[in-house]
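Fig. S4 source data, part A: sequence.
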Amino acid sequence: MLYFFALVLLSLSLWIGNSAISLFLGISLALICKVPDDFFTKKYGSKILQTGIVFLGGSLSLGTVYETNSDFFLWISFYVLVAFGAVIFLGKILGVSEKLSFLLASGTAVCGGTAIASVAPTIRAQPEDLTTAITIVFLLNAIAVLFFPLSNSLLDLGDRQFGAWAALAIHDTASVVGAASSVSEISVEVAATLKVARTIWIVPLVIFSAWIYRSKNESFGLPIFVVFFILATVLNSVFQPNEITTDYLKLINRICLLIGLFCIGTQISKESLSQLKFKPIALASIVWLAIIPTSLILVLNI
């Protein structure tokens, strides 16, 4: 019966296609049913997540992203580094755990849930930290999809300006596109294109996090899946596969991430959920509230 419920909820998570919902459905299974330690979701969840990261690397071309975003690339890179550092610094002041701060910094600076899910295995994050980070980012994204289009009626930004602002200030790609789609097709094109420049930072982020959090018996510090991730990115940059191939790689990545997050969710307990505290929420919210106006000023002056 447990296998039946697991497959039904897993199928539902794939059909919906939202990373946060996949995680929550996995948590629901863990709260409703007692999931044994040898259940397939606990045995293979991390491996599936790592496989998704490799396919993500195969869909990223460094050269193409730079060419597409040449006007904004340096500014976006500066923004990513500053936002990441701000979360880490403020996390220490507020007393948020190091790994949870790292996950929140990854999601805030790069690309929300995808970055969090990609970094979590490399830093060996606890399931409760992953849950906390994705939950907070999911809530902020939901607010952004509603807030940004409404605020534009007051700001009266141009289509390109709004698209650039959404790409800089909103975490997840889906939410960026969702907010921009309420303005115009031009906003969507600009937002999606510039968001890719933030997403590409997953490459150095995964490498950096794997090295920083390497175990004592790892001299170089890169797990095997990170090595494959780098190799896939290099191959994509060299051969530059056509759009159809890239779309398939992105689809496989998306499926693996959804399945992996569902499996991670089954490792959560009521006790770990009760540990969701105010400080991590305050940390992510304060930095985001600073990002919104500063990114707007940046967009207006470029």
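Fig. S4 source data, part B ends here. The chain has 15 helices and no strands.
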